[in-house]
TrEMBL record:
Name of the protein described by the UniProt record: RagB/SusD family nutrient uptake outer membrane protein
Lineage: Bacteria, Pseudomonadati, Bacteroidota, Cytophagia, Cytophagales
Alphabetical list of SUPFAM superfamilies matching this protein: TPR-like
Annotated source species: Aquirufa echingensis
RagB/SusD domain residues: 415-545
Family to which the UniProt record says this protein belongs: Belongs to the SusD family.
Length: 558
C-alpha cells in the first residue's frame, strides 16, 4: 500500500490511482449507490478519457514543447516584459530547458492524467454490462496507447498499468513500442468506423499505428542515428493504405476549412480534440499569436490577441526559397487567406467580417477600437476598418509585423515577427480566451498521404510513388487558389512539404528529430546537444518517487 501510494505520487492529480486493490469494487458501488444505470456509468467513465485532451493541447503545454522548441515558433519577451515567465520560452527555443520548467511539468501531468483516466475507465468498464461498454473499453485502451505514445515521444518512456492495484511499470525503447502497438492491435477490431473524429475509430488506430512505425527508429534509441527498418516502413504503408482505401475520408479543397469552427464534420479529420463550443473547447490556438490590438469579433470588443509567438525568419525563408520570386501567398494556398481589404477607413458589415488567416505579415488591418468599443461608420450599422494601432506602445505605433524576430530588444517588439492565425477565431469567444470551436487535429488525411510517401522513400527510394502522394495533397487545395505540383521529391523536400502543410499543428519537433534536423541551427538556436531530443522528467515527479530507488531516473543530460 505505501509503495503503491508513492508510485502514484508521480502521477500528480490522479487520485484514482491512489488506493487499495479493491478500488474497482468501490467504483461500482459508488455509481450503483447513486442510482446510475450501467449506461450512465459507462458514459461517465469514457468521457473523462477524452476530456483531458484540451488541457494537453493548450498553448503552454504540448504546443509549447512541440513548436516553440523548433524553427516554426519563437516567443521573445514582448516589449521586454510580456511573456517573460522567467525565461522558460527562451530556454525552450534554445534547447536549454531544465527539469523545473512549468510547461514541461504541466504537459507531463496532463498526459499522465490521460493515462490514469484511461486505466480507471478500463477497470470500471470491464465490469459494466451496458452494450456500449465493450466499445468504450476498446476506446479507453486505445487512448491509453495514444497517451503513452505522446509520453514516449516527449519523455522517452511509457507507463504500463492494468489493474488499479498494480504497480506501474516503466517501459522504454522497444518494450514501450511493443506495448503501445499491441494495445492498438488488440482494440482495432472492436473500434467503430463512425464515431469520429472526436473519438478513436478504426481509422484513428490505423493512423496512430502508422505514426508509431514511422517514428519507431527514433523512439527505440532517441539519442542515436535513426535506422528505419523495412518492416516498419511496410507497416506504415499497410496502415495508411487501409485509411485511404476505406474511402471514408477526403482531402479538403479549402485548406482553411480544416481549421474552421465547423471542422468537426470536415472529412479530412480522422482523430481530433473535440472542441465544439458546447463541450470543453478553448481558444488559445486562435488568440495566442495575434497582436493585442487585433480584435476579430464585432460582437465582442474584448476578444483580442496576446502578442505571443511568431514564426522564425528561418522558417519563413523556407517558403521563400521554395517559390523564389513568387510571393508564397500567391504560390501556395496554405500560406495565407486574405479576408480584410488593405484599405484605411473602409466600412464593413459586422455580420460577415472575418480576419485574415494563415501567416500574417506587414501592416495589419482590422476593426478600429477606441475607448472600449469599435468605431462605427456614418450609417451607424457598419464598422470602420483601417490600419491597426498598437495601444501598448508610446505614440500608438502601427502594428506592422516584420520578418525579424529574435531575443534582441528590437526583435522582441510587440509587432515583430510574422504571426499565425491558422485556427479560426470562435464567434462565441467573448473574452478571446475561451470557446474555441475548431477541433484540434491529431491525425488527418493529408498526414496519412505524407506518411506513406515518407515510408516509400525511406524503404526503397520510390520517388515516383512518394511524389504522387505529395502532389495529391498539394493539388487538392483548390478552393481559393491552386498550388503547382512538385517535379521531384526527396527527404529534404518532404520535410519542407510537411512544414508547409502542418505548421503549428504540434508535429514539428517530432518531424525534425525523425529527419535528423533537430540539432540544426535556426533563429536564436544553435545548441547541438542530442540529449535535448527528449525533455527532462519534471523534478516534482522524481521527488515523488524519491524513496523508490531506481524507479524513475532522469533522462540523460538533465
Amino acid at each position: 500500500m505505501k509503495k503503491f501510494r508513492n508510485i502514484a505520487m508521480i502521477m500528480v492529480g490522479m487520485t484514482a490511482l491512489v488506493g487499495c486493490s479493491d478500488l474497482n469494487e468501490k467504483v461500482l458501488d459508488e455509481y450503483n449507490a447513486a442510482g446510475l444505470t450501467d449506461k450512465q456509468a459507462a458514459d461517465g467513465m469514457i468521457a473523462p478519457v477524452y476530456a483531458v485532451l484540451p488541457t494537453i493541447f493548450q498553448h503552454t503545454t504540448l504546443f509549447a514543447l512541440q513548436e516553440i522548441s523548433t524553427d516554426e515558433a519563437i516567443l521573445p519577451y514582448r516589449g521586454g516584459t510580456d511573456w517573460g515567465d522567467n525565461g522558460i520560452y527562451l530556454s525552450l527555443h534554445k534547447h536549454e530547458t531544465t527539469s523545473t520548467d512549468p510547461n514541461v511539468r504541466n504537459t507531463w501531468n496532463a498526459v499522465l492524467a490521460g493515462i490514469s483516466r484511461s486505466v480507471t475507465a478500463i477497470n470500471s468498464l470491464k465490469l459494466n454490462s451496458d452494450p456500449n461498454a465493450k466499445l468504450y473499453l476498446a476506446e479507453a485502451r486505445g487512448m491509453r496507447a495514444y497517451y503513452n505514445m505522446v509520453m514516449l515521444d516527449l519523455f522517452g518512456l511509457a507507463f504500463s498499468k492494468e489493474d488499479l492495484g498494480d504497480v506501474t511499470s516503466i517501459l522504454r525503447g522497444e518494450a514501450a513500442i511493443t506495448y503501445i502497438k499491441s494495445e492498438l492491435l488488440d482494440v482495432e477490431p472492436v473500434l467503430s468506423t463512425s464515431v469520429g473524429p472526436g473519438r478513436l475509430t478504426k481509422a484513428g488506430a490505423w493512423g496512430l499505428l502508422a505514426r508509431l512505425h514511422l517514428n519507431a527508429a527514433v523512439w527505440r534509441d532517441p539519442y542515436g542515428t535513426a535506422t528505419h527498418k523495412a518492416e516498419d516502413m511496410d507497416k506504415v504503408v499497410e496502415y495508411t493504405d487501409k485509411i485511404i482505401n476505406s474511402s471514408q475520408y477526403a482531402l479538403s479543397a479549402d485548406y482553411w476549412d480544416i481549421f474552421g469552427n465547423a471542422n468537426h464534420t470536415n472529412k479530412e479529420l480522422i482523430l481530433a480534440v473535440d472542441q465544439r463550443a458546447e463541450l470543453n473547447g478553448h481558444n488559445r490556438m486562435s488568440y495566442f499569436s495575434l497582436a493585442n490590438d487585433q480584435r476579430p469579433l464585432p460582437a465582442y470588443p474584448a476578444a483580442n490577441g496576446t502578442d505571443g509567438p511568431a514564426i522564425t525568419p528561418t522558417f519563413y525563408q523556407s517558403w521563400v526559397s521554395a517559390y523564389g520570386s513568387v510571393d508564397p501567398a500567391v504560390a501556395d494556398p496554405r500560406f495565407f487567406k486574405q479576408n480584410v481589404k488593405k484599405e484605411d477607413n473602409q466600412c464593413v458589415d459586422p455580420a460577415t467580417y472575418k480576419i485574415d488567416r494563415g501567416i500574417l505579415r506587414g501592416q495589419q488591418y482590422g476593426l478600429i477600437y477606441k475607448s472600449g468599443a469599435f468605431v462605427k461608420c456614418a450609417d451607424g450599422k457598419s464598422l470602420q476598418v483601417g490600419k491597426i494601432l498598437n495601444s501598448r506602445g508610446k505614440g500608438n505605433p502601427l502594428v506592422i509585423h516584420t520578418e525579424k524576430v529574435d531575443f534582441t530588444t528590437e526583435g522582441s517588439d510587440y509587432s515583430s515577427g510574422y504571426r499565425v492565425e491558422k485556427y479560426e477565431f470562435s464567434d462565441k469567444s467573448a473574452s478571446g480566451r475561451n470557446f474555441g470551436e475548431a477541433d484540434l487535429i491529431i491525425v488527418r488525411l493529408a498526414d496519412v498521404y505524407l506518411m506513406r510517401a515518407e515510408a516509400k522513400l525511406r524503404k526503397s527510394n520510390d520517388a515516383a510513388a512518394a511524389l504522387a502522394d505529395v502532389n495529391k495533397v498539394r493539388l487538392s487545395r483548390t478552393a481559393n487558389s491552386a498550388a503547382t505540383p512538385l517535379s521531384t521529391i526527396n527527404l529534404d523536400l518532404l520535410l519542407r512539404e510537411r512544414g508547409f502543410e502542418f505548421y503549428w499543428e504540434l508535429q514539428r519537433r517530432t518531424d525534425l528529430i525523425r529527419f535528423g534536423k533537430y540539432e540544426d541551427s535556426w533563429t536564436e538556436k544553435s545548441n547541438t546537444n542530442k540529449n535535448m531530443r527528449v525533455f527532462p522528467i519534471p523534478q516534482t515527479a522524481i521527488d515523488g518517487a524519491s524513496n523508490l530507488t531506481g524507479y524513475l531516473k532522469q533522462n540523460a543530460g538533465y
